[in-house]
Design brief:
Blueprint lengths: L2 H31 L10 H31 L6 H27 L7 H48 L1
Helix pairs in contact: 1-2, 2-3, 3-4
Length: about 160
């Protein structure tokens, strides 16, 4: 992975992390201060709490991806240490899907006249779970690569003994 690519990805990860912190701070401030700028019919407090928790899940994913990028840069990504970060990304994506389904359930009573919105939102939740499954498949590929790397190292050691 090139230096420019790593630098660009790190910049994006930092921006996403700072952005999620900003959103969390705003949501916490509105919840704590009691000064709700919107007084709508939707249960905004529930949405704000879900948003705060969702931002934590995004932050976990950002940190895990950042650690994986560092491992790629050092050439150590094909090791057992990478699995915990990949598992962190999968867990964060699943948490985000669960939170999305929660938002869908909170929003559903207000959509009685147009249930298509709820169906579309549920479909988006299923798509988010699909992303988690894709990352799980990539984790399995990583496991195969780690196994091959260990096998190659053992064969190299045996060859060194013979020579």
């Amino acid at each position: 992975m090139g230096k420019l690519t790593v630098a660009a990805l790190r910049a994006v990860l930092v921006m996403v992390f700072v952005g999620t912190l900003f959103i969390q701070a705003l949501m916490v401030w509105v919840l704590v201060s009691g000064s709700d700028p919107e007084d709508g019919s939707l249960p905004l407090t529930s949405f704000r709490v879900v948003t705060i928790v969702g931002m934590v899940a995004v932050q976990v994913a950002v940190v895990c991806v950042g650690r994986l990028v560092a491992m790629v840069r050092r050439g150590t990504v094909f090791s057992h240490a990478a699995f915990r970060y990949v598992d962190g990304v999968i867990g964060a994506i699943v948490a985000i899907a669960v939170l999305w389904f929660t938002v869908t359930a909170i929003n559903a009573p207000g959509q009685r006249d147009d249930p298509g919105v709820t169906l579309i939102m549920a479909g988006i939740g299923v798509a988010i779970l699909g992303v988690a499954l894709i990352v799980l498949v990539l984790r399995m590929l990583l496991a195969q690569a780690v196994a091959r790397d260990i096998e190659a190292a053992q064969m190299q050691a045996e060859l060194d003994e013979v020579i």
